[in-house]
């Protein structure tokens, strides 16, 4: 298995990586000192990344802006947006770049050998020879520029990163985490904002931007990573010949400094914006932040991952519960961060009052002192270790390549100790060691040494201020107006000319030669067949069981799905609440803390959701279900059934206080979702205007569900008995045998063990629901959609602008060409008009082939009406669409790439089940793929009327800045506050 290393490199060491079934080799490039980590194994999903240590000295966001900018064309690949060209026309399984507080990383992945080589070539040229030196417009577009088209216009600031970070700084949780890191490490790179603070981004000059790239983007400061099944000798020889050999060694001062500890707790106060009509009471945040030592050992890191879960995160975690019991806040969060040189732990309370500061600190200290004196719950520790070990061994990262996640893990040690690239990939034996520490004072000593006897800590207090965003907007307007007034006519004209030049740059397409510089596969590289479906339907004692037979490494993935089609409309929000309560309140045999420990000891987790499946070719038909899921080793299947039976049959719905805590926590989480995923919240709300299925999703997980939680929290004293009674009613209505369908993803041996346990399990379920359980409810009352067209005002500095509709309702049918159109719109028309010209961070669209739903939505968007107009112009763009054979091929390849993403065993099972319940067949997938591969210009142009019909429905929903929504109020039927 040893790797042949070509000349030009020196092997530092190699070692067997048993946890990855591979060989790790650490090399140094002799001429430049570039550091290279190789992991050779049989994974065909190959990964490459190049990273640089990029410690910022201020909060202008220069590292982040360069990450955006280098992918806007390079010397060998001068197309204006090489990143988008690759996204449109490669079979990549990952393509992105990430800015951290001390490093910038550029990873790619692909299963296709030639595609992998193409992606490597473009990325290496981008980081070493970007066009930023010859095209100043890239800086203006990605960083910031003064926006002024005419002398009489109001002077504004725009830019992609500027908008992105305005969105990030709209979230109080994001502000809090940034302040927490900055406050602990004021004398280091972590003391400033690498992503860029919108207040300081306009201070960055073009020359400083270029200087940062010259300083840090050199092979001598690089960390190169290759993973998977490839010809390493050929790849290394190519990297040396094409790039590394062109450079000499350079001494780059990128060392990350250690922050000296503090003599006493440091306190920081700041403010965040509430909406003008929001209540400031119980809206203060506290965050106690602690630096966990100066030496980041594996044992210390895993020890604190375990402690964070046990003390602050698990249901009933002692410190979390003590804070909630004392009424310090309504939600407690924690974060242990081992990404950087010095790990940190943050304990956060939301919805507090500033006069509770001392009580917040004393409760944490007193609880920790008590735990050290009395000892931690051994079962909690054992359960937490089992949970983390299960996740480590399973290595299920969803759609993200394993090799990517391993590479990011490599950097957590390699960046700070050049001789330890593989330290974090050898944890199997460490879990055994952590188990042996139970019963000693190891964990209690960690608490004492690092949490109690450690002054390197900060307290961040984030206070609410109603209307702060409007105050800041006014200050910025006045500042820009004053600056504009100070400019001479000549200086004003220069700004206008620069805007014209930027517009010309943005609107001038890359030349044919520039576009063709980006390497492209051919249609022959596309396989003709879709990925297989794994569905074998069986009946066990009258219950339908769907077996998805795939190799799972002895893990069974179980889903118990109860049809809830007959649940009365008025109970649907309570159905979602029930999914939050189960497993998180006491049962007959366990407290909820004890139950959580049992789940962690014996499974990889048990979860509950309200979900729904669209029905093929139908707009208003859907299958709503209550899901109970778990993943468990085959030999632990009896325990999984025992634990599911426990909450199905023995849940105690009587603890008013605990249920209120769950409601408050979910309300808090939904507020965070509005900030992080406002684009999808708005799109889903818009789809509820015309669709019963959309309405169902809205009342069980959207803004309507949030409003339900707001009502419960405001009136809980009067409603608590109603809440308990309705949850009990739902337990009787939902969990019956004739509504159950079971999905199991496992090999044959796993299925056989499952079937042995299943019969006694279903014997405990009632056969069916009694009609008398529905007395007083109209179960036939449909969810009635209505076009509301709402603008939701929130304390945000950006917008999420969504339009939606349904082409089935307009009489159109699905074709695979719509998937190609999605690729063309997302990476061409919408990208150019909403992101490049408009300055939004993101924009996307979707065309469902199952139920005909369509949406267009923007992310962290400085605009509103302009973006809506971009949507209105989509039919005209499609009508006039032209593309040569290369362009069409590019879009086809990019579309197929989204369909052929490698799947984990769990994903194979869940995808197969979704297809079964939606009525989709393998023949449908084959037809869709044939449509895609054979799509023509005419097929795309023919879709113009379909999109026109969707937009003509006029469904719009926007979540965003209060002033902006008021300014464009004429777009909406209703304008309202998102949160009270």
Overall average residue pLDDT: 96
Low-confidence stretches: none
Estimate the helix proportion, in percent.
40-55%
Shape: globular
| Name of the CATH first level of the largest domain | Alpha Beta
Percentage of β-strand residues: 15-25%
Could you say what the CATH architecture of the largest domain is?
Answer: 2-Layer Sandwich
Q: Give the C-alpha Rg.
A: 28 Å
Q: How many separate helices?
A: 36
Do you know the CATH topology of the largest domain? Cytochrome Bc1 Complex, Chain A, domain 1
> How far apart are the termini?
62 Å
Q: Strand pairing plus helix content: what structural class?
A: alpha+beta
User: What is the number of strand segments?
Assistant: 27
Biggest sheet features: 8 strands, mixed
Task: Explain this structure.
The strands form five sheets. Strands 1, 2, 3, 4, 5, 6, 7 and 10 form an eight-stranded mixed β-sheet that branches. A six-stranded mixed β-sheet has the order 16-17-21-18-20-19, with helices on both faces. Strands 24-25-23-26-22-27 form a six-stranded mixed β-sheet, sandwiched between helices. The mean pLDDT is 96. It has four domains: 9-143 and 204-254, Cytochrome Bc1 Complex, Chain A, domain 1; 266-465, Cytochrome Bc1 Complex, Chain A, domain 1 (2-Layer Sandwich); 536-768, Cytochrome Bc1 Complex, Chain A, domain 1 (2-Layer Sandwich); 792-977, 2-Layer Sandwich (Cytochrome Bc1 Complex, Chain A, domain 1), CATH 3.30.830. It is an alpha+beta fold. It has 36 helices and 27 strands. 44% of the residues lie in helices and 19% in strands.
